[in-house]
């Protein structure tokens, strides 16, 4: 007898006693109501196949939604450091030029005082951005710049992004966040008329800190700003404190 016949024979032998008892037992008719109750109880306590799988998937879905990374969490995360130091590289892509204009420098972000943006190449120029506005340093010290220029709006944007000021950003942009706390992307679509005249869209990416800011302008130009080697472990130096206070 081959393996297939053995399996079939065993299956028939397992099923036969049940039918036999149903046909031969004199108590079959009296046991029938009790057996029906037992079968109903068994069906109610057994898993429901696709139904149970569906409930399991739904439970996972709700758990994922509960743990989703949102704008408030991003804002809280970026607002934690008291001071951030780092290097930046900015690439400006102009339609009329085959290669980008590249500038490099350092920045200092203070939760209490604002932002120092220190351009090193191709020319040296220092900017300070805080609640009072934007100032540029010259031979006579810090000089305030006009508050309604496109450059001023861009620098205010940098400060809001780096400080995690989502409420400030929401006044001027539609915000869309994707990803996790360690790897997120934030898309900004302008609301205000002034910003709509300058930007089509702004893309920001990061983890614990902001890593990059991409500005897509209405005229077809774009800017990619990358912050490298950022750290929150270093306090303000005496010189930096003086620059913020002056």
Q: How would you describe what is shown here?
A:
- This protein is α+β, with helices and mostly antiparallel strands and 246 residues long.
- It has one domain: Clam (outer membrane lipoprotein receptor (LolB), chain A), CATH 2.50.20.10.
- Helix content is 41%, strand content 35%.
- It has eight helices and eleven strands.
- It has helices spanning 3-24, 28-45, 50-66, 71-79, 150-163, 166-172, 193-198, 238-245, and strands spanning 83-93, 101-110, 114-121, 125-130, 133-138, 141-144, 173-179, 184-190, 199-206, 210-217, 222-231.
- An eleven-stranded antiparallel sheet has the order 6-5-4-3-2-1-11-10-9-8-7, with helices on both faces.
- A hairpin with a 4-residue loop joins β7 (173-179) and β8 (184-190).
- Mean pLDDT is 77; it is low at 1-28 and 45-66.
- Keywords: Membrane, Protein transport, Signal, Transmembrane, Transmembrane helix, Transport.
- InterPro entries: LolA/LolB/LppX, OM_lipoprot_carrier_LolA-like.
- The chain crosses the membrane at residues 49-69.
CATH superfamily: Lipoprotein localisation LolA/LolB/LppX
What's the SSE pattern? Answer: HHHHEEEEEEHHEEHEEEH
Q: Determine and state the CATH class.
A: Mainly Beta
* Count of strand segments: 11
Count of helical stretches: 8
Helix content: 40-55%
Instruction: Assess the beta-strand content as a share of residues.
Output: 25-35%
Number of domains: 1
Q: Can you summarize the main beta sheet?
A: 11 strands, antiparallel
**CATH architecture descriptor name:** Clam
Organism: Pseudomonas fluorescens
Protein name: Outer membrane lipoprotein carrier protein LolA
Keywords: Membrane, Protein transport, Signal, Transmembrane, Transmembrane helix, Transport
Transmembrane segments: 49-69
């Amino acid at each position: 007898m081959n393996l297939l016949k053995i399996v079939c024979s065993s299956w028939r032998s397992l099923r036969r006693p049940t039918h036999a008892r149903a046909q031969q037992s004199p108590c079959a008719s009296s046991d029938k109501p009790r057996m029906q109750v037992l079968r109903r109880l068994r069906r109610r306590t057994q898993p429901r196949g696709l139904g149970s799988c569906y409930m399991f998937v739904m439970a996972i879905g709700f758990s994922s939604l509960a743990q989703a990374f949102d704008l408030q969490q991003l804002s809280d995360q970026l607002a934690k450091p008291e001071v951030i130091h780092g290097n930046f590289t900015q690439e400006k892509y102009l339609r009329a030029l085959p290669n980008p204009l590249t500038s490099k420098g350092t920045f200092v972000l203070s939760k209490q005082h604002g932002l120092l943006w220190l351009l090193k190449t191709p020319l040296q120029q220092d900017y300070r951005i805080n609640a009072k506005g934007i100032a540029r340093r010259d031979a006579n010290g810090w000089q305030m710049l006009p508050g309604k220029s496109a450059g001023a709006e861009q620098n205010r944007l940098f400060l809001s992004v780096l400080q995690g000021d989502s409420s400030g950003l929401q006044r001027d942009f539609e915000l869309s966040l994707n990803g996790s706390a360690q790897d997120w992307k934030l898309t900004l679509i302008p609301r205000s008329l002034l910003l709509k005249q300058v930007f089509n869209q702004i893309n920001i990416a990061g983890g614990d800190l902001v890593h990059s800011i991409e500005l897509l302008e209405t005229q077809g130009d774009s800017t990619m700003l990358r912050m490298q080697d950022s750290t929150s472990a270093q306090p303000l130096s005496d010189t930096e404190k003086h620059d913020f206070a002056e």
